[in-house]
Recover the amino acids of this structure.
């Protein structure tokens, strides 16, 4: 939910900055006024703000995909560790059964030899 709010913030900021950049550029193109320097500064500022918002969107997208990949990798590691633990416990059970059978075989051989 938090990621969606950040992405929505960046999208809104990008849309506003692009709109303001377009409007100030349009004013500069259509009306060649005395305050050209101010309009050029505003246009550059809004273009910078639009670029910043676009960069923020890209970073949020990359961060979101990285977080999803990391969670999937963690789940895979947990599954592997659980299966490894299960395998080692199965091995221990089999080893103990083998020891019991070996002991029983030794006892049976001793009894037969007597």
């Amino acid at each position: 939910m938090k990621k969606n709010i950040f992405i929505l913030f960046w999208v809104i900021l990008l849309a506003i900055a692009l709109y303001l950049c377009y409007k100030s550029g349009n004013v500069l193109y259509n009306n060649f006024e005395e305050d050209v320097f101010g309009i050029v500064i505003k246009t550059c500022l809004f273009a910078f703000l639009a670029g910043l918002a676009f960069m923020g969107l890209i970073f949020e997208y990359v961060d979101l995909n990285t977080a999803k990949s990391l969670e999937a990798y963690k789940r895979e590691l947990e599954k592997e560790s659980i299966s490894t633990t299960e395998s080692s416990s199965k091995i221990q059970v089999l080893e103990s059964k083998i020891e019991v059978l070996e002991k029983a075989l030794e006892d049976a051989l001793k009894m037969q030899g007597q």
About this structure: The CA atoms of residues 14 and 52 lie 8 Å apart. The mean pLDDT is 80.
